[in-house]
Design goal:
Elements lengths: L7 E10 L3 H16 L6 E5 L13 E2 L2 H6 L16 E7 L4 E4 L11 E2 L2 H14 L3 E4 L3 E6 L5 E6 L2 E3 L5 E6 L2 E10 L6 H9 L11 E10 L9 E7 L8 E7 L4 E9 L9 H8 L3 H7 L3 E11 L10 E2 L2 E3 L15 H18 L15 H7 L2 H8 L10 H16 L39 H6 L13 E3 L4 H10 L3 H4 L5 E6 L2 E6 L9 H5 L5 E3 L14
Parallel strand pairs: 1-2, 1-12, 2-7, 4-14, 12-19
Antiparallel strand pairs: 3-6, 4-5, 8-9, 9-12, 10-11, 13-16, 13-17, 14-15, 15-16, 18-19, 20-23, 21-22
């Protein structure tokens, strides 16, 4: 067995895990505040994607509120906000019809912009680097490091070049220890380090169980005659049934591009439901088909998103660090917007963290907990925004019509000031019913032009993996995959995964679960929805996975 060398270490004042909108906003604000205080602080941002933006995915319509606070002259700095929203549509779909609904405040996008989040994050990274932030894409944070007293002292990046047998290969490179006074977790939804810290410090002890959705998106080029830049359309209803929370979107960008997708709550009940296939069905609706026909799908992606809102926010601080962005769950679910809220959370965290930093170079055997972050959040417009909409997502536990009725009451009567807070209805993995109690869903075969199979879609995600690296999707007990998932739930992982990672193979007249890890788009839905919580998503080698740079 090859002896693995000790890791080298680097010291920073602040280490940020994740180069998304929250992490980059935190880095920028830290440097801005340091300049105002005439302090020299070191800030490092790492990201597991091959480049900044590679693992970033959103619809995306940006509310520029937080951006205008962070970078007041963003227009002069050529921020990639080139497609202002000029028209909103809200449509209720039946199988053949489309009924126009009034635009509520939730769906009013006046003053917002349709963007590529990958492009926007690369622009934010440029602003951060100009301020002196060090950014290292292609490095996955795989381990939290602790002081003797239990406070967080930093993170370690994963080793590179490990083979399937667990031994170092020819291109082996040891991971690094990145040590800091404060570690900011901006990993996005269901971050692996965040998940560990939630358990270690019991950060979700006082909140409701988190609930999630899966968002699946395609990017198309369409006939110029059908392009309507600046048009935002949201739909509810078909193809989902009355009990399944979700909706769809179609955003017209410049250059004859159209982004469309579907978000489905992962608290759905029928194990035969396939979010990927539901998106394919959605495209066959006459209203959607007429836009896409004659066009070409050029990109695909999927990711989970935190839908718990204010009720599911964990404790935001721990000794030695904080949690920001979708790692915590700052998404405004009814608006389907989390970019501006994530950015604001990063800015608030930076304001709290900088006050806790000691002079660089001082030997630290313990790192403090910055409770001020929570105090700043509770006094911010971010808290007010999430508080106003806190009841809308849990209201859909009464079904589509019940949720819409409650939403109308909140909109026109209580105006977000109802004197109660609704609760979510348990965990997403517990919501799944046994296969014997559900009706199978028969989805139409793809035509290869408007609708596709998973393999075609995965190709459009720009996925890259070293096929000899260890499988990053772990089963706590391999027998459970057949004894319970297959026999009792009809192997739902073969359907809720939007990338065909999980496959049942008949081998010697017996079923076996095959994991095609090379297909993984790192959406993390399997980690969330698996009914026995037997699947554990871990980081693959840094730089691997999808590339959503233009999505």
């Amino acid at each position: 067995m090859t002896k693995i060398p000790e890791r080298e270490s680097m010291h920073y004042d602040v280490v940020i895990v994740g180069a998304g909108p929250s992490g980059l906003s935190a880095a920028i604000r830290l440097k801005q505040l340091a300049a105002q205080l005439q302090r020299d602080i070191s800030v490092c941002v790492i990201d597991k994607g091959s480049e900044v933006g590679a693992h970033i995915l959103s619809g995306a319509v940006l509310d520029p509120r937080a951006l205008s606070e962070l970078i007041t002259d963003w227009t002069q700095k050529d921020a990639p906000l080139n497609c202002p929203v000029v028209k909103d549509k809200l449509i209720f779909l039946t199988k053949k019809r489309a009924l126009k609904l009034p635009i509520t405040s939730t769906f009013n996008n006046h003053g917002n912009y349709i963007i590529s989040l990958g492009v926007f994050c690369r622009w934010l990274a440029q602003q951060a680097e100009e301020l002196g932030v060090e950014i290292y894409p292609g490095f996955a944070a795989t381990e939290v490091l602790y002081h003797a007293d239990g406070s967080v002292r930093g993170i370690a990046t994963g080793d590179m070049g490990i083979q399937k047998n667990g031994q170092p290969g020819a291109n082996f490179q040891r991971g690094m220890e990145l040590l800091a006074q404060q570690t900011i977790l901006a990993e996005g939804c269901r971050g692996s380090l965040t998940k560990d810290l939630l358990k270690r410090f019991e950060l979700n002890k006082a909140c409701q169980a988190p609930t999630y959705g899966i968002g699946i998106k395609e990017l198309w080029t369409v006939d110029p005659a059908k392009s309507r830049p600046g048009t935002v359309m949201h739909t509810i209803g078909w193809p989902l049934n009355q009990k399944t929370y979700g909706g769809s979107f179609m955003y017209h960008l410049n250059d004859n591009k159209v982004a469309l997708g579907m978000v489905i709550g992962l608290d759905y009940q029928n194990p035969y439901l396939s979010p990927f296939e539901e998106l394919q069905r959605y495209k066959t609706h006459p209203v959607i088909r007429q836009v896409l026909e004659g066009g070409q799908c050029i990109a695909y992606g999927a990711r989970a998103l935190s839908e718990g809102g204010l009720q599911s926010l964990p404790k935001l601080t721990f000794p030695g660090g904080v949690i920001i962005g979708d790692s915590a769950g700052f998404l405004n679910v009814p608006r389907i917007k989390g970019i501006h809220t994530s950015m604001k959370s990063g800015m608030l965290a930076a304001q709290a963290v900088i006050d806790a930093l000691k002079p660089f170079g001082q030997t630290l055997e313990s790192n403090c907990e910055v409770h001020q972050y929570t105090e700043l959040f509770n006094k911010s417009w971010l808290y007010a925004e999430l508080h106003k909409v806190r009841n809308l997502r849990p209201a859909f536990k009464w079904g589509l019509l019940g949720g819409l009725a409650y939403g109308a009451m909140e909109e026109f009567i209580f105006r977000g000031k109802a004197p109660w807070t609704l609760s979510h209805s348990g965990t997403d993995h517990d919501s799944l019913r046994k296969a014997k109690d559900c009706r199978p869903i028969i989805y139409p075969k793809p035509d290869g032009q408007l609708t596709f199979d998973r393999n075609t879609a995965v190709y459009l995600a720009g996925i890259s993996y070293d096929e000899n690296q260890p499988v990053h999707l772990k089963l706590n007990n391999p027998d459970v995959a057949i004894d319970i998932n297959y026999r009792e739930y009809a192997s739902p992982e073969t359907r809720y995964c939007p990338a065909g990672v999980y496959e049942i193979i008949e081998e010697n007249n017996s079923p076996r679960l095959q994991i095609n890890a090379q297909n993984c788009v790192q959406c993390k839905s399997c980690d969330i929805k698996d009914p026995t919580q037997n699947i554990n998503w871990t980081c693959s080698e840094g730089g691997c996975g999808p590339n959503y740079a233009e999505m």
